[in-house]
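Model the whole thing, not chain by chain.
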Amino acid sequence: MGNNEFYFEVQARDRSGTQARVGKITTPHGSFMTPVFMPVATRAVVKTMSPANLKEAGTTILLGNTYHLAVRPGERLIAKMGGLHRFMAWDGPILTDSGGFQVFSLADLRELSDEGVTFRSHINGDLFCFTPERVIEIQEILGVDIIMPLDHCIGWPATYVEAKEAMERSIQWAKRSLRAKSKKDQALFGIVQGGGYKDLRERCARELVDLDFPGYAIGGLSVGEPKEIMEEMVRAATQILPPEKPRYLMGVGTPQDFLMAIAHGIDMFDCVMPTRNARGGGVFTWNGKLQIRNACHKESPLPLDPKCSCYCCQTFSRSYLHHLFSKKIEDILGLVLLTLHNLTFYHEFMAKIRESIWQGRFREFAEEFLLQSRDPSTNDG
Amino acid sequence: MGNNEFYFEVQARDRSGTQARVGKITTPHGSFMTPVFMPVATRAVVKTMSPANLKEAGTTILLGNTYHLAVRPGERLIAKMGGLHRFMAWDGPILTDSGGFQVFSLADLRELSDEGVTFRSHINGDLFCFTPERVIEIQEILGVDIIMPLDHCIGWPATYVEAKEAMERSIQWAKRSLRAKSKKDQALFGIVQGGGYKDLRERCARELVDLDFPGYAIGGLSVGEPKEIMEEMVRAATQILPPEKPRYLMGVGTPQDFLMAIAHGIDMFDCVMPTRNARGGGVFTWNGKLQIRNACHKESPLPLDPKCSCYCCQTFSRSYLHHLFSKKIEDILGLVLLTLHNLTFYHEFMAKIRESIWQGRFREFAEEFLLQSRDPSTNDG
């Protein structure tokens, strides 16, 4: 932890005709390789997982939610307990989002102005006020490694005027966040907004690049738009964002989404999908998804995924996991084991992608995976 | 697993004036030391715990519930998956109860006769018939190491006539169980019944001793009777049961109960208390119990128990665990961590008891513990 500088180094570029690259990000809490998947530790915990489980699954960086942590237990309590790393006993890198997305999607919004947003917590009704300055302050108190500026998030669909207004306000807030930032050992990323409008995305990216952030996120996607729009917006932004800075596509997504975005040069992802799906019995495998509650698994002696090396796959049959997920049993162990498996799969998926980029065969890897994961013979089909 | 014989060896007797002893039980799935606590794996899982967690906590033998397993997933499915050990991936010894207790407490009882009991499952309403022969068959199909005969369980209080009838029927059923048993690699214990009546307990113990079981359980206690009655019944039975056979006090209990029973020569225990309490936020420590939800732990940087070596105590503060248990957060990780801690405490408690017996100072250990665990200074008080 001697080095308090945030550092990104591109170590390899794909040679199969995509923008994919392998990188290494260094933070005060250690380094990790990109492309990377960040499990979501909303309330200072990746639901069901201990830090030991996360290490076992291959997690190298976590995402925490500023909104949730500010509401409960509050950044002051976390600071009293030694900061977010120590509070949750995770000694690796942590990134926190700005809370913007949750303020606009979860909270009872009271007032929105250029100054900031006032809202009532969805947990206890307490009144909160988020300004760009306050959101930086919270994240500095949490003591994480990568922080995000407050942004004005809109839904899908939105009119051009709405998207433009929210984008412009987000840029103003990004500037204020830069000015408010006081700690040298945290990297503040810029967030590209602009809804589903290519020219807005481009303009936003250009203005943020001028502000020279150490990394850039693309926000406001995976909110219901068609996949083609998502790809168009990712392409529009990545073509402008500087190649020597890391790029983070927020809230995305599926293995298929990763392949698309990495081909455009995206380096970082976060999503609740592997953890949330696991708790509902949904399993990611190298042969596609399966639902462990389906009756076809009741007498299956197979592991979830014969290619997976996780404790769950090395130890238990689908039959046993089906039993754990069956009605009136629904044992917590099933939720833990499927979460461990899905996270292992997500991390292993990224490791294989990095390997394929090193080998200059990312495109081939992507095509093989898309073919394989459509094979119905070994999943629920 | 070469030795298919069930074997019990008393290795040390307390020299501080109690009947406490250290023993070693050998089964086809390995050996364990007594006094021992057996976590309850009702439905082929100790709620929230993986086999790896159990080993970590110090578990050496598990208890499974014949009633629950017969109802779901059914012994046939378990056999198809290679038996209960392989199904749940636990390679150590397993004891199953007879289901008698659950039939009388959980099921919708249809008919009870000398032949057996007919009941509807509390899960799906299916009609089942348990006879002594059928219960032995189920346990032989499950393939566990120690099995129990069907017994007629009564509640507290019960009249002398009720207790006598149930005890006599249980003895008849024990005889039929012995005749029905066909596998040599399972040990069938006798169960002493007799309600809260000393003379019935004594008569039952004597008749069972004549049948020469390899081990003896004491059933029908911890069902609401005063602690003095429990102790009187334990003393009545243990004074008659042969000292060279293991003694198992079913469904008990608290650390205090263990000290009482071990002083009378009990070797084995099972109880849902450490696991069920954990899921409700209740924590056992060397200084007594605490409730992690209590506000006094909100800002406490202390571990649950400074004397505990479990992953939870070595890693997390009470403040963090309080956060995990707080309303609208209630993360599963909290349930897992407290279960791991409580089981570690229970097993460590037994290990310290065994150590004190070796050292001839069990009585001193018991007195110290009772004093210490009343100290309110480091718990919720």
